[in-house]
Amino acid sequence: MISTITWIMPLLLLPGVGLLLLSTSARFGQIHAEVHQLFDDSVLGSMDVIRHLLQRARLFRYALTSLYASSAFFAVGGIAGAIIDLSWPQYAGGAVLLAAAAGAIALLIVSVLLVRESTLSLVIIESHVEALEQRSSNQS
C-alpha cells in the first residue's frame, strides 16, 4: 500500500497550476482586447505589431492547453493513485509517478511557451519605444 502522501502530492500541486492558469488566461484576455481594439478602431497598427500579437496569442493558447493538461494529469494521478491503491496497491505508486511526470512535463512546456511570449512582448515594447523616440526627435 502506498502512503497517502504519495497520491495526495499531485493534488497539492493543483493550486499552483491554477494560479498559473488564472494569470495566463488574464494575459490572453488582454491580447484579445488589444486585437478587438485594433479591429474596432479601424486603425491598423504596424503589421509587425499585429504579427507579434498573433504570435503571442498562439503561444498563450498553447500554454493554456498545456496548463489544462497538467491540471488533468495531476488530478488523474491523485485520484488514480487512491483508487488503484485500494485494488492493486503494487501499481499505485507507478500510476501516480506516471501521471505526475506527465503533469510536470506539461508545466515545463508551459514555462518555455511563456518565456517565448515574454520575449515577443518585449520586442513589441521596444518597437513602441523606438517609434516614440523617433516621433519625439521629429517634433524637436
Helix content: over 70%
**Total DSSP E strands:** 0
Span between N and C termini? 77 Å
Low-confidence stretches: none
β-strand amount: under 5%
Shape: rod-shaped
Which structural class matches the secondary elements? mainly alpha
**Main beta sheet strand tally, sense and closure:** none
Question: What Rg do the Cα atoms give?
Answer: 22 Å
* Average pLDDT metric: 83
Name the helix and strand elements from N-terminus to C-terminus, one letter apiece: HHHH
* Total domain count: 1
Number of helices, where a helix is a run of at least 4 consecutive DSSP H or I residues: 4
Describe what you observe in this structure.
The protein has 140 residues and is mainly α. The protein has one domain (14-139). The protein has 4 helices and no strands. Helix 1 packs antiparallel against helix 3, helix 2 packs antiparallel against helix 3 and helix 3 packs antiparallel against helix 4 (89-139). The radius of gyration is 22 Å and the shape is rod-shaped.
Question: Any key phrases for this structure?
Answer:
140 residues; mainly alpha; 4 helices; 0% strand
Concise summary:
By secondary structure, the chain is mainly alpha-helical. It has helices at residues 4-12, 14-41, 47-87, 89-139. Helix 1 runs antiparallel to helix 3 and helix 2 (14-41) runs antiparallel to helix 3 (47-87).
List the helices and strands and how they pair.
Blueprint: H1 4-12, H2 14-41, H3 47-87, H4 89-139
Helix pairs in contact: 1-3, 2-3, 3-4
